[in-house]
Amino acid sequence: MYLEDSDYQTVWQLAHSWAKQTESTSGDVSAEVRRNIHRILIAIRNDIISVRTPTGILFADDSTLTFFLEFRHYLKFRKLLLQSKFEVGYLEKLYVWRPEVIRWCNNHQLSIPHIWQDEVDNPDDTDPEAHWYHQLTPRRKRIAGALFIAQRLWDEDQLLDYLDVYNHPDMIRFDKPRSFNTLESFKEWAKNIAPVKARTGGKRSKSM
Q1: CA–CA gap between residue 96 and residue 18 (Å, rounded)
Q2: Which of 116, 117, 134, 114 is nearest to 125 (CA)?
Q3: What is the pLDDT of residue 123?
Q4: Quick one: what percent of the chain has pLDDT higher than 70?
Q5: Alpha-carbon torsion angle 26, 28, 33, 35, nearest 10
Q6: Is residue 28 in a domain?
Q7: At 128, is the pLDDT very low, low, confident or very high (cuts 50, 70, 90)?
Q8: What is the largest CA-CA distance in the chain?
């Protein structure tokens, strides 16, 4: 699963890395780690960075249906922000993505978390494309995330066609097909990253 990639950290891991501390227990959290956890959760709730779990993406949109289905997560976030003890098991299932976190840090004058400090590329602020992601609407951010997954899948297997990727378990797990509504919409968005075989309608791979 791609969440195991170094581009992803759980909220619990990142809060400790940011404080340059080893992981603690729920009842033995330093003030700095606590501040980092609250800072990350608030950024998630304000739609500055996205959050994923092993079963899907959270807070994908502002619809009533999403609010109803994810109401327990809204309650958990509120509890975590109000109480001094943390539910470690829950925080270890919330993943954030490196590029989003680094852009957030750069845009809000925050230090880069230690775990990703060596990987930071300092963008040229004169480049109008440097902060492209921050300027996207929530829907286009979801599309960008889906295309990132699609690119990884094609990097691993260039024999996959559009339908293979659109219906891939990793895409479905994070509710990415909904970002496009239809397969034809996905084809249009993904045409610049799809391998030649997918674009020309080559032989499909065996079903997964």
Answers
A1: 13
A2: 134
A3: 47
A4: 79
A5: 80
A6: yes
A7: very low
A8: 57
Task: Give the residue from 90, 206, 102 showing the smallest Cα distance to 159.
Answer: 206
Instruction: Inform me whether the pLDDT recorded for 33 exceeds 80.
Output: yes
| Three-state DSSP class for residue 140 | helix
pLDDT at 152 > cutoff 80: yes
Phi-psi map region of 95: left, alpha, beta (phi>0 left; psi -120 to 50 alpha): beta
Q: Which domain holds residue 182?
A: 136-195
| CA-based nearest residue to 52, from 98, 104, 19 | 98
80 band by pLDDT with thresholds 50, 70 and 90: confident
Residues 67 and 113 in one domain: yes
E strand segments, the chain: 8-10, 51-53, 56-58, 95-97
201 part of a folded domain: no
- Specify whether 56 is located in the same domain as 151: no
Residue 129 counted as domain residue? no
Is 161 among the domain residues?
A: yes
* Residue closest to 60 by CA, chosen among 191, 180, 152: 180
Which of 86, 119, 152 is the last residue in one of the domains?
Answer: 119
